[in-house]
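Good morning,

Attaching, inline, the backbone tokens for the sequence recovery test we're adding to the shared suite. The designed sequence is right after.
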């Protein structure tokens, strides 16, 4: 039945048996036209900002493509025919434009059919490299922007099963890449006779792990992992000269030093684990010359199957090795000082170290951090920004340090990750002489860009910060009726920068701006991809929950709708989020001027089917002080949904007797709970959800506590526990190959059986070969057909006596 959609019905769409099968269906043409609308190209700017690259996106793959052989091992999904990933997105067209010109140019000699991925500019901005995928191989290609030609540069097959498949050296004349070491070797067939049992043993140590999927299961899986993931590090010059670097291995990463003299490698070691994915297997961190000679063994990182619980936890010992981007060849890494355990009291949580080549001296400490290290932005030899955070109180800090001369760190920003109004934004980067990304610093000032969240909605900005005083000055801010974001700085001395500008009716396009000027110079003129949505009315609603928390939702109304037409059947779509503060939970997010973008997961398609859409309805789950958000999850969930429906009804556009709840993943979990604990909705649609939290006992979503620490919370949050209370029709859709942590397909299977066993109205659709997100065109079209049919049957029909809209929870 792998090539069929498995339908398990408790209440039929026509005369279909309880476990019948059907062929793929197409939704109404209005929806199909939107799904098949051409997408806008992706636009990239070269490091020197001299070139724009336009990449045409591929359409949805067919179900035949998804059904091709696939290995699901060690947390990976591998195409065994070409040593690549089995679920890739490709670019199928390439055009180039010089910034100073208006005409787009085609590139000659591109492979056909073009299936491009991993597009990467050379440091000199004159070239770029990419991977070309064929059914039986991956090839490494280079594009010359000046000659407008492309060519394959190696006859060897590239391995892209794990890690980064290639990297430019700073000379822009060479690339280091992973060649498939076992190309041409045949994997021995799996014996039907096992060599022995699979045994796992724990000798008294705590080793909690979340519910990973696609893990190794036996000795044969280990041999498959070795065969397909082993690579030979190879250095190739653009003139064709090629040399092997070191020995074959399973490389998680390979990174040339900024001065192109060394390569930092992270190689997976045995023993493997059947409990965690490959990224947590033991690793050897080493520095090699580009000729393959071992310069220094930097660290041996053990199997990470016993990381302490908590979102602020980490492995013990060194982690996060990399090169400083601002100097020639200096390593840096971080080490936990609290054993990686957030429950251990410690004044210093992490320390950041550095070690310059040739690594004959001892490493030195750069900075100590009271919270957990979260990354670093290199500026120059005198300036770097270090980031730290702590989950339990949502604290975030940014420090400025001098990485060359150790001195006290200076706090630049100190704020809550929940407080979007106070978010200072992200530092603007540029490319240095090594071709590495560093902070853009001019006259001792750096630049910041951000969403600019405010009570009136997001207003992106460009700021300048004095690195000596910390004073921030605004250079530019997006203005109504547009939503405009900073994409890149062109010339800091001239004050020119690129933005992406859009409105409710205008597709995003690129413009050049100058600080202090209101004029704009257009760079692109992409047309509206779905003109049939031009007259759709969008409004950001602002309203309050019963406990006073401010809420928002995006309301979409059909083209031509007038209030005198009366209230509409409504599709409510949301995804709950946890907060530690009511004030930050109520902050406005998003912009009323954003262009309506569609993807396969959006509910907005149904605005053309006569529905009002309440999208991105905020569902804040708040727990202040010692109270955790999920302690009152159900009450806050129902209250938030009721507030949205009531406010929409007060506007005269939402018919409270005809509302459907819907969501994907955690939104599906929400949908199950809303139907179980309220009578607000006529029906529900839940995609790829988890419904029984005892199957995710070591935490889920933002919940850090285990099932054994908070059993009542796990029970009460699980709609599976209240399956007997779900009387409204529910459509559940799930990908048969869902590998998202926690959302095993069995979650939907068991939930369906529980509802069915208590006489509820339910339909369960299992999509073959689909993962947590759906990719196959037939699958996506069928999903839309299922959803449209469900809404038409149970929600859009004649008005009925208003349901009991009391907030009191079902017993």
């Amino acid at each position: 039945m792998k090539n069929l959609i498995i339908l398990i019905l408790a209440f039929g769409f026509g005369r279909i048996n309880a476990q019948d099968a059907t062929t793929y269906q197409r939704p109404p043409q209005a929806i199909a036209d939107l799904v098949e609308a051409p997408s806008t190209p992706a636009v990239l700017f070269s490091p020197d900002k001299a070139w724009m690259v336009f990449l045409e996106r591929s359409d949805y793959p067919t179900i035949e493509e998804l059904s091709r052989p696939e290995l699901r091992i060690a947390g990976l999904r591998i195409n065994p025919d070409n040593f690549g990933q089995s679920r890739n997105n490709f670019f199928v067209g390439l055009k180039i434009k010089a910034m100073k010109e208006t005409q787009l140019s085609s590139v000659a000699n591109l492979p056909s059919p073009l299936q491009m991925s991993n597009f990467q500019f050379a440091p000199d901005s004159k070239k770029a490299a990419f991977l070309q995928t064929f059914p039986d191989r991956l090839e490494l290609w280079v594009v010359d922007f000046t000659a407008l030609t492309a060519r394959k540069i190696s006859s060897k097959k590239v391995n892209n099963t794990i890690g980064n498949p290639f990297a430019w050296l700073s000379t822009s004349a060479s690339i280091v890449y992973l060649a498939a070491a076992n190309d041409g070797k045949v994997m021995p067939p799996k014996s039907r006779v096992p060599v022995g049992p699979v045994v796992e043993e724990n000798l008294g140590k705590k080793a909690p792990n979340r519910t990973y999927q696609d893990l190794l299961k036996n000795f044969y899986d280990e041999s498959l992992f070795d065969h397909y993931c082993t690579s030979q590090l190879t250095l190739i010059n653009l003139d064709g000269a090629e040399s092997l670097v070191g020995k074959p291995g399973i490389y998680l990463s390979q990174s040339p030093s900024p001065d192109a003299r060394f390569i930092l490698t992270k190689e997976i070691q045995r023993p493997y684990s059947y409990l965690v994915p490959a990224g947590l297997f033991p690793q050897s961190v080493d520095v090699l010359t580009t000729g393959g000679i071992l310069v220094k063994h930097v660290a041996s990182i053990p199997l990470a199957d016993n990381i302490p619980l908590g979102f602020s936890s980490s492995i013990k010992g060194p982690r996060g090795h990399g090169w400083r981007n601002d100097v020639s060849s200096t390593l840096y890494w971080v080490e936990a000082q609290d054993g990686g355990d957030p429950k251990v009291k410690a004044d210093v949580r992490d320390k950041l170290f550095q070690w310059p080549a040739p690594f004959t001296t001892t490493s030195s400490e750069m900075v100590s951090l009271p919270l957990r290290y979260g990354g670093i932005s290199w500026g120059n030899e005198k300036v770097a920004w270090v980031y730290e955070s702590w989950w339990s109180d949502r604290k975030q800090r940014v420090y400025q340090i001098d990485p060359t001369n150790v001195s006290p760190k200076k706090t630049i920003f100190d704020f809550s990750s929940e407080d979007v109004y106070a978010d200072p934004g992200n530092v603007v980067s540029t490319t240095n002489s090594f071709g590495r990304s560093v902070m853009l610093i001019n006259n001792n000032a750096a630049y910041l860009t951000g969403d600019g969240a405010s009570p009136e909605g997001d207003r992106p900005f460009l700021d300048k910060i004095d690195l000596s005083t910390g004073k921030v000055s605004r250079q530019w801010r997006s203005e109504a009726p547009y939503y405009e974001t900073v994409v890149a700085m062109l010339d800091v001395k001239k004050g020119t920068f690129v933005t992406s500008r859009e409105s409710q009716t205008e597709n995003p396009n690129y413009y050049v701006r100058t600080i202090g000027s209101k004029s704009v110079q257009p760079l692109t003129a992409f047309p509206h991809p779905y003109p049939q949505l031009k007259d759709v009315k969008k409004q950001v609603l602002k309203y309050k929950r019963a406990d006073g928390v401010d809420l928002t939702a995006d309301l979409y109304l059909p083209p031509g709708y007038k209030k005198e037409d009366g209230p509409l059947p409504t599709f409510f779509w949301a995804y709950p989020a946890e907060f530690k503060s009511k004030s930050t939970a109520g902050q406005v997010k998003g912009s009323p001027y954003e262009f309506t973008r569609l993807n396969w997961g959006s509910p907005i398609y149904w605005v053309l089917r006569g529905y009002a859409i309440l999208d991105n309805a905020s569902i804040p789950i708040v727990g202040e002080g010692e109270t955790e958000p999920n302690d009152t999850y159900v009450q806050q969930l129902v209250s938030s949904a009721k507030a949205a429906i009531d406010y929409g009804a007060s506007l005269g556009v939402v018919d409270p007797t005809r509302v459907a709840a819907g969501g994907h993943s955690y939104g599906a979990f929400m949908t199950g709970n809303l139907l179980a604990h309220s009578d607000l909705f006529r029906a529900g649609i839940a995609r790829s959800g988890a419904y029984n939290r005892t199957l995710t006992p070591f935490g889920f979503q933002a919940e850090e506590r285990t099932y054994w620490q908070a059993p009542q919370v796990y029970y009460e949050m699980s709609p599976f526990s209240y399956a007997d209370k779900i009387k409204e029709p529910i459509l559940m859709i799930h990908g048969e190959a869902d590998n998202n942590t926690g959302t095993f397909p069995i979650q939907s299977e068991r939930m369906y059986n529980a509802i069915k066993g208590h006489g509820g109205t339910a339909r369960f659709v299992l999509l073959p070969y689909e993962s947590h997100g759906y990719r196959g065109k037939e699958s996506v079209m069928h999903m839309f057909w299922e959803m449209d049919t469900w809404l038409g049957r149970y929600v859009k029909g004649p008005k009925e006596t208003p349901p009991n809209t009391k907030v009191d929870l079902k017993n």
